[in-house]
Amino acid sequence: MAKTNDFTKYINEALAAFPVDTSAYNEAFQSSAAMGEKLSKVALEAAEKSTEISAQWTKDTIAKVGDVAAVKSEPTDYTKAMTDFASAQAEMTAETLAAFAEVAKKVQMETVELLMAAGKEASEEATAAVKKATADVTTAAKKAAKAS
Questions:
Q1: Are residues 47 and 106 in contact, defined by beta-carbon separation less than 8 angstroms?
Q2: Rounded CA gap, 142 and 9, in Å?
Q3: Which residues contact 116 (CB under 8 A, 6 or more apart)?
Q4: Deepest of 51, 64, 72, 92, by most Cβ within 10 A of its Cβ?
Q5: How would you class 75 by CB atoms within 10 Å of its CB: exposed for 0-12, middle for 13-18, buried for 19 or more?
Q6: Which mean pLDDT values do the consecutive 10-residue runs of the chain (148 residues) have?
Q7: How many helices (H) and strands (E) does the chain have?
């Protein structure tokens, strides 16, 4: 019966000849986690501000509806109250939408800044990693050449 060769020794020697530096993976994970944290902060701040805007809009609308619902002495007062409500609501809507637009603009600017900074950092890290990998492979190749 044929005996199966044990390749464990060969594989271990091959892996030892080309060592892998896992610190690059750890740094990439840390960078990714930090980026996620920064983007989450931007999103959470926007959500908080949007909630404040919505809550204020709701409070103002409810206050205006209270004026409409109040008993009036003349039928024309109901018409005036509805007209005033519609006018105030249109003004509040414009102001609220402008506030939401400012929040969106701020989120967009902060996100672009974060992504540009991350791109620059990733480019610098990639360049450094390639230089280090080239040096490591060159060193390993020289050791392998001397060993044979």
A1: no
A2: 21
A3: none
A4: 64
A5: exposed
A6: 74 76 79 91 97 96 91 91 95 96 96 90 80 84 76
A7: 3, 0
